[in-house]
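A quick aside before the break. I want you to see a complete sequence-to-structure record at least once, exactly as it would be stored in a machine-readable document. Don't worry about memorizing anything.
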Amino acid sequence: MAEKAAHLPPLDPRNPLAAIESAADAYRNWGRWGEDDVWGTLNFIDEAKRVEAAGLIRRGTTFSLSQLFDTDGPQNGWRRRTNPVHTMLDTGVDAARGNQGFPHGIGGADDVVFMPLQSSTQWDGLGHIFDRGRAWNGRDCGEVVTGEGDQVTGIEKTRDRFVSRGVLLDVGAQFGENGELPDGFAITPEHLDATIEAQGESSHIGTGDIMLVRTGRLARARRDGWEEYAGGPAAGLSFTTAGWLHGHEVAAVATDTWGFEVRPNEFDDAFQPLHQIAIPNMGLFIGELWDLDALAKDCATDGRYDFFLTAAPIPFTKAVGSPVNPIAVK
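That is the input. The structure line, written in tokens, reads:
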């Protein structure tokens, strides 16, 4: 049963620390699943939830929710995040010239990719963000993530957990122009509730669901070019949705934007404050840079906004985030 969200005072843009402290105290899940927990809100997904999700498959139609991992992707070098670099190790040219050293005419091709793990569609792991020196479940962040990686909550710990009922909330279609929200549009709990009401019963959000929020920002980037898609202004979830997410007991949330939450942030001096509540305090997994456009079109056509969703991260050992190719099946 979802918990009732705590009532916090209205945001004061001049006092981000007070808002962060209040929300962290109100929505913290430390100890909820034991002191050794490494799954956070993925604990909300149980076997019954996966059986429920499987029952949503009716047509067998699949949608990849991943952007391409492309050299010409959205990254601009912020904090050394670059687009993937794809290089061939062996090619058809080598095979044709017979210089690969294989017998009887067999040849082959091999390649390698260098990339930050959060350069395209990805999950933020629980070791990605800290709150005043503390990682998920109250651990000392310096002991959790070292130069050798995440020693406790590495993304590989979740490699079989992201299978559940997915729900798309197309806020861009409900409140935007031509399906696209303007930059800086803060999606509040009221916007989420109104979108659910407008989309109908298949959009209800419950314990263990993976919630996908479409803003339309990726659609604009496709039309107009990347511009400031990575790190610039964008619509996104308001800081005030922390209690809504906590109360609905969602397992994970993903958006079609670079940063998940509204940018610029809602305070005079803050950086990604909703991340600061969601990841280290709630244990909530955040997906970013997801491609929700084709799925949204299909949902609008058939009137069903829930589906079977599998979104396993590549299990890079001790990583604090990972690429993913999410698959929605309707």
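Two observations worth writing down. The first strand starts at residue 62 and ends at 64. Residues 257 and 292 are 10 Å apart (CA to CA). We'll return to this after the break.
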